[in-house]
Structure formats: C-alpha cells, structure tokens
C-alpha cells in the first residue's frame, strides 16, 4: 500500500483501492479538504472488503498524524454541516492527539459500489484512532444512502481543512494549555 498526503494541497488526488465507492469518497476528501492525496492499495477483496477498507483508514490516519507533527500552530478544531440534496451530515473534530470516534450513521443498503456500508463507521473509527483525533459524525437527515455517505466525507474534508489550517496568531505554539497534544 502506498499513501502520500500533503495537508496544504490543492485537492489533487490519485486514488486506486479496487473499491469504486471508497475511491470516490477518498477523492471527495482530497478535493473538498484541499488535501493532495495519493493512495494505491489492493487486498483480498475477493474474500471481503473489510481488511482493505481498514488498512486504507489506518495508513491514511498514520499519514495524517505524521504530517501534523507536533501540531504546532494549527487551528486544531474543525466542523462542518454539509448538505447533499436531501441528506445532511454533521462532522466535528479535534486534532487533540487522542483517538476517539463517535459515529452515528444508519444506512438502508448493505453495499454501494463495492463498499460494504458496515465498514463506513469502522473506516472513520480507524482513521480517527490512527490520526489521533477526536471525531464526531452524525447524519441529521437523508433518504439516499449514497447522498448520506458523500455528505459525511465532504463534511470530514471541510472539517479537516479548518483544523489543519495554520493560525498565524499562534506563532508555532501548540494549541493546548498543556503545551502538548
């Protein structure tokens, strides 16, 4: 697996996981987060997509954690409420150095574009744990599962974009009263 991540990018991406819907969601993450992302991954999807989805989340989370370094000067917090037609998703995160995810989503379909929907919450949890961020995700409205899923990833992208932004007033300080994240 190969993952490259640039936090202050242009939203450029090359994503190939062999799972079309996962590719689409990662492309949304790059474009709307203005992150440059390259992901080349394959795995035993003939058995089940679970391991590949999990491995992509783990590797991407680790890349995010590494790119953040000691997290000096970042905004740290980000949130977004994102609509996609009838769907509405809320995403809030804290690049606190502590991995935690509260994911409150329900889907009617069992799979979209090769992505088992049961793996969506697991992807988000694995990403949060490895990136060492606190992540809250809720779908507030929606009937179309594709729309709900896409609103989640666009919300994650927008929240990340806010949180990784450099705050010029911090002058390289760690955004915590404890002086560590």
Give your account of this protein's structure:
The protein is built from four helices and nine strands, in the order E-E-H-E-H-E-E-E-E-E-H-E-H. It has 181 residues and is α/β, with parallel strands linked by helices. The chain has one domain: Imidazole glycerol phosphate dehydratase, domain 1 (Ribosomal Protein S5, domain 2, 2-Layer Sandwich). The strands form three sheets. The protein has a four-stranded mixed sheet with strand order 4-5-9-6. It has a three-stranded mixed sheet with strand order 1-3-2, covered by helices on one side. Helix 1 packs parallel to helix 4 and helix 2 (50-68) packs parallel to helix 3 (118-131).
Name the features.
single chain; 181 residues; alpha/beta; Ribosomal Protein S5, domain 2; 4-stranded mixed sheet; 3-stranded mixed sheet; 4 helices; 9 strands; 26% strand
Major β-sheet profile: 4 strands, mixed
Give a count of the beta strands, DSSP E runs of length 2 or more.
9
Strand content: 25-35%
The total of helices stands at: 4
Question: Portion of residues in helices?
Answer: 25-40%
For this structure, what is the CATH homologous superfamily?
Answer: Imidazole glycerol phosphate dehydratase, domain 1
Average predicted local confidence, pLDDT: 95
């Amino acid at each position: 697996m190969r993952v490259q991540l640039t936090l202050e990018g242009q939203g450029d991406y090359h994503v190939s996981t062999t799972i079309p819907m996962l590719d689409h969601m990662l492309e949304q993450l790059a474009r709307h987060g203005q992150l440059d992302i390259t992901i080349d991954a394959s795995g035993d999807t003939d058995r089940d997509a679970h391991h590949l989805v999990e491995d992509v989340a783990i590797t991407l989370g680790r890349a995010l954690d590494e790119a953040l370094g000691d997290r000096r000067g970042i905004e740290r917090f980000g949130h977004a409420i994102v609509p996609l037609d009838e769907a509405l998703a809320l995403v809030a995160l804290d690049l606190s150095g502590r991995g935690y995810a509260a994911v409150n989503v329900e889907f009617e379909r069992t799979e979209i574009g090769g992505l088992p929907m049961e793996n969506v919450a697991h992807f988000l949890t694995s990403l949060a744990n490895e990136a060492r961020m606190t992540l809250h995700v809720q779908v507030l409205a929606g009937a179309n599962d594709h729309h709900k899923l896409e609103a989640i990833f666009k919300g994650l992208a927008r929240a990340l974009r806010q949180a990784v932004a450099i705050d010029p007033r911090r002058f390289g300080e760690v955004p915590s009263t404890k002086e560590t994240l």
